[in-house]
Amino acid sequence: MDEYEALILLVAMLISFLDLRTGVFNKLIEAFGGTAQDFMSDAGAFKSIYVLSGLWQTLGWNSIIYIATLTSVDVSLYEAADLDGASKLQKIIYIDLPSIAPTTMVLLILSVGNILSVGFEKTYLMQNDLNMSSSEVISTYVYKMGIISQDYGLGTAVGLFNSLVNFAFLEAETPE
User: Fold this and answer.
1) Is the separation of the CB atoms in 66 and 72 below 8 Å?
2) Model pLDDT for residues 120-172, shown as the tens digit of each residue
3) CA dist., res. 13 & res. 87, Å (int)
4) Which of 47, 89, 117, 127 sits 20 to 30 Å CA-CA off 17?
5) What one-character DSSP code corresponds to residue 147?
6) What is the DSSP code (8-state) at residue 41?
7) Are the CB atoms for 156 and 139 separated by under 8 Å?
């Protein structure tokens, strides 16, 4: 399964989970006495849904990276902490967090380079006429102006500006 198929599957699952009549989340809301809500049509909920689905989407891969980083920590650090009477929380604060800090910085630098590239595919798949006011992003705007409206100059200018700003963020964040 390639990246685009995975995005299509993710958005299809989101639409299914958030469906007004048959969605799991609305069934839970109704079970607790609330009223069902059409989340995918709510412009105010779009940003939260997008961010939470992004966290859900990347949680597995990031967990693998952080667990791999934690496996490289020297066991003698934990043994010394045990001898000193450190609690589990103290081991996390003084051993685990400093050990994953370099990996966290690398992942941060890689993600800052794409700060304005929200992701055309997922956003476009989640868009509908009812949530358009909050779901329009630069990449979907470039598509609509450049391809659908055939205003190639404006689409190219906006896309180039987006790339330059991403480059500037990446250069500002890169350590020397």
Assistant:
1) no
2) 788 888 988 888 888 888 778 888 888 888 888 888 888 888 888 878 877 76
3) 41
4) 117
5) I
6) G
7) no
Q: How far is CA 160 from CA 114, 123, 153, 166, in A?
A: 14, 20, 10, 10
Nearest to 122 by CA among 140, 142, 149: 140
**Non-local CB neighbours of 133 within 8 Å, separated by 6+ positions:** 43
Amino acid at site 15:
I
Q: Return contacts of 16-22, CB within 8 angstroms, 24+ apart.
A: 18/49
**Considering Cα of 127, then 128, then 130, then 133, what sign does the dihedral take?**
positive
Q: Which residues have a Cβ under 8 Å from the Cβ of 53 and sit 6 or more positions away?
A: 10, 14, 122
Contact 51/126 with Cβ under 8 angstroms? no
Rounded CA-CA distance 82/85 in Å is 5
Q: How many CA atoms lie within 13 A of 136 on its CB side?
A: 9
CA 89 from centre of chain? 28
User: 149 by DSSP, 3-state: which?
Assistant: coil
Instruction: Tell me how far apart the alpha carbons of residues 94 and 77 are, in angstroms, rounded to a whole number.
Output: 10
